[in-house]
Amino acid sequence: MRSTNESNITGFILLRFCDYPQLQKVLFVIILILYLLTIFGNTTIILVSHLESKLHTPMYFFLSQLSFLDLCFTSSVIPQLLVNLWDPMKNITYGGCVVQLYVSLALGSTECVLLAVMSYDRYIAICRPLHYTVLMHPRLCMALASLSWLSGVVTTLVQSTLTLQLPLCGHYQVDHFNCEVPVLIKLACVDTTFNEAELFVASIIFLIVPIFFILISYGYIAQAVLKIKSASGRKKAFGTCSSHMIVVIIFYGTIIFMYLQPANSRSKEQGKFVSLFYTVVTPMLNPVIYTLRNKEVKWALKKQREGERERERES
After folding, report:
1. 159: closest CA among 192, 181, 190?
2. Are strands 11-14 and 91-93 parallel, antiparallel or unpaired?
3. Which residues are bridge partners to 91 per DSSP?
4. Which residues of 215-234 are buried (b: 16+ CB within 10 A; e: fewer)?
5. Residue 173 — φ and ψ, nearest 5°?
6. What span, in angstroms and rounded, lies between the C-alpha atoms of 93 and 101?
7. Rounded to the nearest 5 degrees, what angle is found at the Cα of 213, between the Cα atoms of 252 and 47?
8. What's the per-residue H, E or C state across the chain?
9. 166 vs 3: CA distance, rounded Å
10. Residue 303 phi, psi (nearest 5)
11. Averaged over 89-105, what is the pLDDT?
12. Which family does it belong to (predicted)?
């Protein structure tokens, strides 16, 4: 095993997830169930948003983008995690690590921007409802979604490429369950000040700036909601935003803990479980949160089930 700039590198060894080997199979079952629920829930959101004409709105367009993003993100990490939990060797090829690094970072960064875009959509819907359809026209929605995806691609091309240029000098044991920039930087046998500074700047751009934008949007939304005189109107306005706020708090809370907290202030096991949460649990929770707290989605699901029963009776 040699540094990443050598041509005959073969792969990495992903160290076991925790200090209790007997928990490996239990974690395998739990993560597999959560992964299947993630696939089912997010696929359902995408199909319902596409099939139900009532949901052909900017809000559900961005929600479909988020669901597709979560499907791709979990699929870039969880299959390899399941293999490593079951296989005692726990190896990942160099090519597999590179692909996982580029793809997962691109998708994670895209989600940071997309959640900020979704908060802007809620701001327009609550604060300027009469101009909502004019301002949030399909061309703008597509441009905002494209900007989110493009920003993720750009940051992974920069961060991942810089990280892979670091010499490892025989350090091939990754004390994590997947290939991430902070973990690979720790393997380097040279001064990584520049890489750490670049990672910190990227974290500010993709974490702090979107959160700041979201807080401003919801500050205006809160002012608009408080001006609504009827209790039912305030409840309806709050209901359209509460799902997004819950997703934002869960996603950004775990990401900030992982990327902005000093590495020496948390244990390795703690870092692994935090990464596991935003990799496995958060994508599974998103469709659950939006479904349980959104009457339109529940209505669309009910309509689809009734349509299936009707077709079954006719056949």
Report:
1. 181
2. antiparallel
3. 13
4. eebbeebeebbeeeeeeeee
5. -95, 110
6. 12
7. 65
8. CCCCCCCCCCEEEECCCCCCCCHHHHHHHHHHHHHHHHHHHHHHHHHHHHHCHHHCCHHHHHHHHHHHHHHHHHHHHHHHHHHHHHCCCCEEEHHHHHHHHHHHHHHHHHHHHHHHHHHHHHHHHHHCHHHHHHHCCHHHHHHHHHHHHHHHHHHHHHHHHHHHCCCCCCCCEECCCCCCHHHHHHHCCCCCHHHHHHHHHHHHHHHHHHHHHHHHHHHHHHHHHHCCCCHHHHHHHHHHHHHHHHHHHHHHHHHHHHHCCCHHHCCHHHHHHHHHHHHHHHHHHHHHHHHHCCHHHHHHHHHHHHHHHHHHHHC
9. 8
10. -65, -40
11. 87
12. Belongs to the G-protein coupled receptor 1 family.
Pair of tokens at residue 131: 């101009």
* Region of residue 171 (phi > 0: left; psi between -120 and 50: alpha; otherwise: beta): beta
* Cα angle 80-81-85, degrees, rounded to a multiple of 5: 120
The two structure tokens encoding residue 93: 């090829």
Q: Is the pLDDT of residue 236 over 80?
A: no
pLDDT in tens, 1-39: 344 444 455 677 766 565 666 777 888 899 999 999 999
What residue type is 63 in one-letter code?
L
Check pLDDT > 70 for residue 270. Answer: no
User: Could you give the CA distance from residue 302 to residue 213 in angstroms, rounded to a whole number?
Assistant: 35
Q: Which two tokens stand for residue 269?
A: 């096991």
Largest CA distance in the chain: 70
Q: How many CB atoms sit inside 10 A of residue 26's CB? A: 11
Residue whose pair of structure tokens reads 């995408």 in the numeric block: 46
Q: Per residue in 168-206, pLDDT tens?
A: 776 677 777 778 888 888 888 888 889 888 888 988 899
* Token pair 């690979």 in the structure block, residue: 184
Strand arrangement of the beta sheet that strand 173-174 belongs to: 91-93, 11-14, 173-174
Instruction: Provide the residue type at 263 as one letter.
Output: A
pLDDT of residue 256: 75
More confident residue, 72 or 23: 72
pTM beyond cutoff 0.90: no
Residue 244, CA distances (Å) to 91, 286, 287 in order: 37, 9, 11
